[in-house]
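Hi R.,

Here's the chain you asked about this morning:
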Amino acid sequence: MSNSSKIDIVSTQKRMLVVLDCFQDHQAILNIASHLAVKQKMEISALFVEDVNLVHLAGLPFAREVDRVSHIERQMDQDRITSALAKQARQIEKLLKRLQEQSKLQITLDVVRGHFTNEAMSAVEVDLLLLNKRGMRFSADAQRDAGKAYSLPLWVLYDGSPAAERALLIAGELAQDQAGLNVVLKVQSQLEAAALKEQVQAFFSGAKIDLHFYAEADEDFPFVLQNIKQRGCRVMVLGRQNPENTSKTALLFAEKANCPVLVVS
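And the predicted structure, written out as tokens:
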């Protein structure tokens, strides 16, 4: 089951897909998307995914929910859940219309019922894919300080592949208005780390970008994760390779590092 809502659909060559669900702070992730889209001169396609598991769960006779305000437990009602999802879709449409008026970006909205990860990673005809941690909502203080997000560092994952080079290009363009760019080198040895570091330095030769490097072998992810949490993360940029590996890596950074992830095709 799916439905679709469109806002001023105009086809362009470059498109960013922003994947949303009912558990996110939509305004926060759309602010990031609009900033990226303006810099990259892209249109935005927003995809709101109605969680099919949530809808199915609400149809079971033993499913219960707790009201966040009253803390009263009650049986989940499928009609109420479906109505709430439709209301969220309308709210997102209002946010997008306001965003379009402010930014002059070309924006579309689609609403589908499915699985968040599957819908996000199945998108192939997009230049950039932006997704955030599911369930990420921000406190009132964080929302008031939303402007500080733009001062947080950018991160990019680099392993020497053509996909990683495309990610490096986008990350470098986005980092030009920032103090620096943090590069996570995916390596198997220190020798490989040195070679990849030289590649990145040569790639940005002549550019005024302050580079910081972190080597990540399979067992080093906790170290990299600790650094991301300590220094903050505006966006993690990575290249789209095979769908399975890209999906795992993107969700790993989104879920563990609480970091919006930008996948470059």
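The longest strand covers residues 43-51.

Let me know if you need anything else.
M.
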